[in-house]
Amino acid sequence: MFNLKKLFGLTDEGYRNFKRGVFAVVLSNLTLFITFAVIIQTIMAILNPLITGSAFDRVLIWKLFGVGLLGAVLHIIAGRNEYRKTYSTAYGEAEKIRLAVAEHIRRLPLSFFNRKDLSELTTNMMDDCTSVEHVMSHVAPGMFAGAITSVLVTLILCFFDWRMALALFAALPLSFGIIFITRKIQERHGRRSVEAKLEVSNQVQEYLEGIKVVKAFGLSGERWDALKDAMKTLTRRAIVFEGVAGVFISLASIILQSGMGLVIFAGVNLLWNGALDPIRFLVFVLISAKIYGPFLVLLTLLPEFFFYLLSTERMRKLREEKLLSGDENVSLPNCTIELKNISFAYNEQDVIKNLSLDIPQNGVTALVGPSGSGKSTISRLIARFWDVREGEILIGGKNISGIDPETLLTYMSFVFQDVTLFNDTVMNNIRIGKKDADNGEVYAAAKMARCDEFIRALPDGYNTLIGENGSTLSGGERQRISIARALLKNAPVVLLDEATASLDPENETQIQEAISALVKNRTVIVIAHRLRTILDADKIAVLDRGRLVEEGTGEELLAKNGLFARLYRIQQESLGWSVGG
Ligand code: ADP
Fold it and tell me: Is 374 in the pocket of ligand 1 (CB under 6 A)?
């Protein structure tokens, strides 16, 4: 009925353990019935002599006492077994699921993150895993074991006296029918309550993230109201949901237990007609007081189970998101890059339109164009952060859609303006380029990237801790650190995003020198913002609204007097104004 393995994304081992868990709970339930059966037998052993006038069987009573004791011991052992099998394996499994989901997220294409907020994703991941943990430890084993035990007990009772068993369970279909029929209503309220919960976690996160702005602009009232509203909604929806589910569960259990009345009614009738002996009648009355236990467990756990199916839906969808795949063992003969008739859209509208461009090996190719023309997008497509919608990108003659993204990235270094720096030493921040680099290699790369001097001037030199995301360094310094990383990585392809912010001449010269060191003998794609700096690039590709409109050397393009020449002139003029001629 439920493919649990798929629903909760269990591992093979986790699924096996789960089945063991259910078996352990069934065992534990059955041991409980041993003691119960002993009690009934004892009552019969005491009543029988009174009714039939036969001798009182002391030995039987002692035997029953022994079996009862054994039953109790077995129940304790089974209980411990149940605990180990359900709880500890559930938590172990949840840990594995967490890691598997994290790994899955790491391998998802960036296009996925374009649709989702990363922080929301991680919070939800933790929440969903907690749900799986709860279902695996508290809900599913009890529920499945409840079902199995119920069937077993029903069969045994039918064997004992089918007419009385029928009376006992006559209300069963109606009672479970209520839970199943109202599932949609419960789900609707469940979903609303889950949504409200998400909204609260979003609001809390937003509130915490924005606390600086909130304080600076005295917005505390508004932001706080939004959070308070979300919480109120959650409370209301949660109460409604619990209420609705509670009503149905209570109704179902009342109906189920009305079977007890039926047992007495049917029993008295049968007794009257002499079709049932009084002892059996008594036994059934006693049993009916106890028998509904596993059924009631089932009745209360079913809606809870349905609810958790809802809240783990998101995780299931996430795990079904397609990963970018490809060959991990490719070796590229060279690093010429060809874009062939590529089109690409982040959402519906194409931002790159049928674009073809050859990027020669060991040369500098500059992508220029107005803001939003698609320069960064092209560099992301080359790195396969996204896959093209149409056309193909070849590197060394191989289509990158057939190359494993991580393998492809070993061929590439990135120098971006929004460099991510970690809250670690400068040394380790550069070493990210090549994890096993020794200190000497790091120093050499830093020297080539013109970082050495400013790093040595820091309080602890290379061992200085840089604040979160490099807040203690200037923009130019950060970019040079990122160049040092790229130099250390020594990949044949470099994707470089030139800084947009104007740097002081000193910084600018140093960055230019660092870049000159980096581009030597490499295939370089530079997203250029200041056209003066790339005039002598081997090739300039001019983009406009996702199309390639011009290509050639700087000289050729200036002579052509097209878009490039126009952009160039505008920049020169504004420069002229800002530095006074
Ligand atoms: P450029 O680098 O030339 O400034 P981009 O490649 O960044 O241009 O952007 C090209 C177009 O794609 C723009 O219209 C931009 O709004 C859009 N765009 C860029 N990144 C995203 C994204 N992550 N999601 C949706 N649209 C995007």
Answer: yes
